[in-house]
Amino acid sequence: MFESSQKTIKESVQLEGVGLHNGKKVNLSLIPAEANSGIIFKRKDLGNSKNEIEASYKNVSPSTLCTKIKNSHDVSVSTIEHLMAAFYGEGIDNIVAEVDAPEIPIMDGSAFDFVEAIRSVGTQKQNSLRKYIKVLKKVELKDGPKNISIEPLEKDLIIDFEIIYKNPLIRTRRKEFKLSNGNLNSVYNSRTFCLYEDIDQIKNLGLAKGGSLDNAIVVMENKILNEDGLRNRHEFVDHKILDCMGDLMLSGYRIFGHVKTSQGGHQLTAALLKEFFSNKTNWEFESLEKKENNQKNSKYLRPIAVNA
Predict the structure, then answer these.
(1) How confident is the model at residue 128 (pLDDT cuts 50, 70, 90)?
(2) Segment 12-34, tens digit of pLDDT
């Protein structure tokens, strides 16, 4: 789960689908990238030299119901969060995500298809050290009843997420997800969701033009309108954890820290990253190279006592 070397994918892979909010057909290509190049989104449909956008919290642009990034030339791409979560969980550090539309395809509303595409071609270790962000001090933000914080945690990521809905089916739910547990399937497979009574309002905003029961869970009072129901009993809060993990990848690195949030969302996570990185005393880089070398050397040396 936690490795010392950077990774990309072994070869390119293609996906196609529709944008959740603009309803447009979109082709997505995931392309291997050189070490230390990071995650880059490229708008192939624009066909110019200003069409690349670095996946960074610094480039997050205000948006509704998704994460959107924009470069200095006003070129943007939106709904990147599920793909970014797949990159986080599958250990991808360097990749180009090339699209021919302004929105990443929603697929089935989860990260499942992105993860399957990455696994279908496999990953490639690169000859460069992976850096992790080590949280040194707690940072907290509040927005009315909403809040989010990040605090130190030794060599792991925990996302503790609480959702609060008046809807009798969703209600208040809370789950703590620990990345080192290794099983990401329920998070990967959890779909975006909405309340039936909110659909007209969302569409009046010009959003969800590509939304359907094929790519979102729709809840009406105490009933799920999707024929097959939920994929797991934690699907609502698991999807929020998926979103949060994808948004945290906009730090440019994986994080060793404990994130706690109640009623959080894309904009609150982006605001936390900006606040967190605004002060260098909040964090430092850490690598696992020394740890792995020590483990290799231990095969040939007798055990010795060390301070933990």
Answers:
(1) very high
(2) 999 999 999 999 999 999 999 99
Residue among 93, 306, 61, 191 nearest 53 (CA)? 61
Catalytic residue among 82, 239, 258, 266: 266
Q: 3-state SS of the chain: helix, strand, coil percent to 5?
A: 25, 35, 40
Distance CA 112, CA 200 (A): 28
DSSP 217: E
Are residues 141 and 160 part of one domain? yes
pLDDT in tens, 84-105: 999 999 999 999 999 999 999 9
Judge if 41 and 100 occupy the same domain. yes
What residues pair up with 136 in beta bridges, in sequence order?
none
Number of domains into which the chain is organized: 2
Mean pLDDT of 242-252: 98
Q: At residue 192, does pLDDT exceed 90?
A: yes
Residue 272 and residue 206 in one domain? yes
- Concerning whether 82 is annotated as a catalytic residue, the answer is no
**Which residues on adjacent β-strands are paired with residue 14?**
29
Is there a domain that residue 73 lies in?
yes
Is 115 in a helix, a strand, or coil? helix
Q: What angle do CA 85, 190, 7 make, to 5 degrees?
A: 25
Containing structural domain, residue 168: 133-286
Residues 148 and 89 in one domain: no
Instruction: Give pLDDT, residue 253.
Output: 97
Q: Write down the residue that tokens 């740890």 correspond to.
A: 291
Q: Which residues pair with 44 in a beta bridge?
A: none
- What token pair was written down for 124? 């490639």
- Residue 307 located in a structural domain: no
The gap between the terminal CA atoms of the chain, to the nearest Å, is: 21
